[in-house]
Write a structure and sequence with these properties.
4-stranded antiparallel β-sheet; globular; Butyryl-CoA Dehydrogenase, subunit A, domain 3; Butyryl-CoA Dehydrogenase, subunit A, domain 2; alpha+beta; binds flavin-adenine dinucleotide; 9 strands; 10 helices; 3-stranded mixed β-sheet
Length: 384
């Protein structure tokens, strides 16, 4: 039982930490304020191999694993969550379903471009009518000869409208099962397909340098071969995708929680009040101790969920607990960090203000806190 990082993992962590500190930190605030997607930073992340971290080299990946991705996400989110969510969604929602459920041909066609970061993938599950109840999907895909014809819409889809978005995978109803329930499948739509409308980007509270759009489909036609995974397995496949994605969001949340500690400890040394650094006050020290405790416990929770996943053991409840705990910790740490910074914590030029704005979505995206509690309760045998 050892939670210390191996040499390879530590080397990756340190490389991403340096990149986040030297490249992302000085530039990202301006992109955030302009609500602009940081293409050059994302391109650099691509050249570093971050988008290919958990994929085999034969598909253009780095030959690492999902935990390596999580370590990179934690280090990025210590500094900025917009770039971290761009990587998270690009890998875990965009490319991973192709790797897990795609045919050999689909993997060879899409993964090298997605792994290089030259192209971004998106995954559209949520619809304007609801996200938590994913089985209530209304978007349809009807087979017409050798083509799927897709109609409907998706809401809040990350990475779906950038200049480098190449692939949008969506869940759609492809028929009814013998028991009368919806048959849900997953279909790949290349960006630019006629009938696909990408709305202007949302005005958001946070993640302002990341891309989030509403999509609509009006008789969008793609080849029958664009079905991803077995017909009717779309629901099961995206549940697997989300289980893994929750570990990644837990890593991202841990990074934000830790970033709040880093910034607040620095500020507690620098800022003086009543003739002393504010960090000499026990009230501030106790806040910082509790913040570090939350970041540390969040990290252990996602390490545990990731190691179970990599060992091929059940990890659904552990992923839900890691996501729930770390996202709520991120929100609490962001609130406390802002408090420690006083009025400056409310000024956008201070990283903790960005962290505060970026933290709330962590309790919502890839399954709300209520959904995580439902999953944990079900794992204890309580009825659905
Ligand atoms: C910035 C951003 C990026 C996103 N990126 C993506 C993406 O890339 N792809 C994608 O598919 N989606 C994405 N989402 C959507 C996100 O996953 C959903 O917003 C989330 O799953 C919640 O769905 P909803 O917004 O429809 O809320 P709803 O499902 O309408 O829920 C509303 C409230 O009711 C609660 N609730 C619902 N059912 C129950 C219940 N049975 N018991 C108790 N409480 C319940 C919820 O917890 C929540 O508090 C993104 C969202 C945002 C804001």
């Amino acid at each position: 039982m050892d939670h210390r990082l191996s040499e390879e993992y530590e080397s990756l962590r340190a490389t991403v930490e340096e990149f986040a500190h030297d490249v992302v930190a000085p530039k990202i605030g301006a992109f955030y304020e302009r609500e602009e997607f940081p293409y050059e930073i994302v391109a650099q992340m691509g050249r570093m191999g971050l988008f290919g971290l958990p994929f085999p080299e034969e598909y253009g990946g780095m030959g690492g694993d999902y935990f390596a991705l999580c370590l990179a996400l934690e280090e990025l989110a210590r500094v900025d969550s917009s770039v971290a969510i761009t990587l998270e969604a690009g890998v875990s929602l965009g490319a991973m379903p192709v790797y897990r459920f795609g045919t050999e041909e689909q993997k060879r066609e899409w993964l090298p471009k997605l792994c290089s970061g030259e192209m971004l993938g998106a995954f559209g599950l949520t619809e304007p009518g609801g996200g938590s109840d994913a089985g209530a999907t209304r978007t349809t895909a009807v087979l017409d000869g050798e083509e799927w014809v897709i109609n409907g819409s998706k809401a809040f889809i990350t990475n779906s409208g950038t200049d480098i978005t190449g692939l949008i995978t969506v869940t759609a109803v492809t028929g009814l099962k013998p028991d009368g329930r919806k048959e849900i499948s997953t279909v790949m739509i290349p960006a630019g397909t006629p009938g696909l409308t990408v709305a202007p980007k949302y005005s958001k509270v946070g993640w302002n340098a990341s891309d989030t759009r509403e999509l609509s489909f009006a008789d969008v036609r793609v080849p029958a071969a664009n079905l991803l995974g077995e017909r009717g397995r779309g629901y099961a496949n995206f549940l697997r995708t989300l289980d893994e994605g929750r570990i990644a969001i837990a890593a991202l949340s841990t990074g934000l929680a830790q970033g709040c500690v880093d910034e607040s400890v620095k500020y507690a040394h620098e800022r003086t009040a009543f003739g002393h650094p504010i960090g000499t006050n026990q009230a501030i020290q106790f806040k910082l101790a509790d913040m570090r405790l939350r970041a540390h416990t969040s990290r252990l929770a996602y390490y545990d969920a990731a190691s179970r996943m990599l060992l091929g053991e059940p990890f659904k409840a552990e992923a839900a607990m890691a996501k729930l705990y770390s996202s709520e910790s991120a929100v609490t740490n962001a609130r406390e960090a802002t408090q420690i910074h006083g009025g400056y914590g409310f000024m956008n030029e201070f990283p903790v203000a960005r962290m505060w704005r970026d933290s709330k979505i962590l309790e919502i995206g890839e399954g709300t806190s209520e959904v995580q509690r439902m999953l944990i309760a079900r794992d204890m045998g309580l009825p659905a």
